[in-house]
Amino acid sequence: MYNILIVDDHPVVRAGVKTILNAERGMFTLDEAQNAKETKLKISANNYDLILLDLTLPDSQGLNLLKDIKTIKKHTPILVLSVHPEEQYGIRCIKAGASGFISKESAPFELIKAIRKVQAGGRYISPALAEIMACQIFDKDGPRHLCLSDREFDIFIGIAQGLRVTELAERFKLSPKTIYTYREHVLTKMGLSSNVELARYADTNDLIV
């Protein structure tokens, strides 16, 4: 039996994933968590063969929880199951230690395929993500957002979504001054000059869900 922890804050999503996995009779035992705090408590107390992880939880945003899990249980594989498109977080998740990234828009058989790939000790990379990675290798003048750190990228996406500084500060538990500093770093690295240009860039590159 392959022991899987499903991490998602939406009960309907967790139920849907469980239905898909339970159809593979006798293959999986399933547990679930609805936020980062519960996830960290469970992985500290139990050994899972795989963690199916959503990136957006009420008490954690972006790659924070993924990195925390790798600190607590370094060798536990993580398969990110996210509403975010591959263009936004796929490569960052792989670099942060995930064993794969799959969109919630994928067909059920793709989820099973991804789990089996990770179960066999491999990494699951969707065709869309593979194409992005290939473009990075062969195009040194790739998209400008790839030069951002993970935190800078999170701030960039928040700004592009129209969040105010106070909202970003609350989301990432940082001071407004620190948010302003990150914003300046983002603008400088990307060669842009305003929030409007950041939002236009994100829209043009399909980075907003």
Topology record:
Blueprint: E1 2-7, H1 11-22, E2 28-33, H2 36-45, E3 50-53, H3 64-72, E4 78-82, H4 86-95, E5 100-103, H5 108-119, E6 124-125, H6 127-138, H7 150-160, H8 165-172, H9 176-190, H10 195-204
Helix pairs in contact: 2-3, 4-6, 7-9, 7-10, 8-9
Query: Largest sheet, if any?
Result: 6 strands, parallel
Uncertain stretches: none
Distance between the termini: 35 Å
Average predicted local confidence, pLDDT:
89
Determine the strand fraction and express it as a percent band: 5-15%
How many helices does DSSP assign?
Answer: 10
* Rg, alpha carbons: 18 Å
- As laid out across the biggest beta sheet, the strand order is 2-1-3-4-5-6
Q: How many E-type strands?
A: 6
| Helical residue percent band | 40-55%
Structural class: alpha/beta
Given the C-alpha coordinates, what overall shape results? Answer: globular
Order of helices and strands: EHEHEHEHEHEHHHHH
Structure, explained:
The protein is of the alpha/beta class and 209 residues long. It is 52% helix and 13% strand. The chain has 10 helices and 6 strands. Strands 2-1-3-4-5-6 form a 6-stranded parallel β-sheet, with helices on both faces. Strand 4 (78-82), helix 4 and strand 5 (100-103) form a beta-alpha-beta unit. Helix 7 (150-160) packs across helix 9 and helix 8 (165-172) crosses helix 9. The longest helix has 15 residues, at 176-190. The N and C termini lie far apart (35 Å). The relative contact order is 0.11. The mean pLDDT is 89.
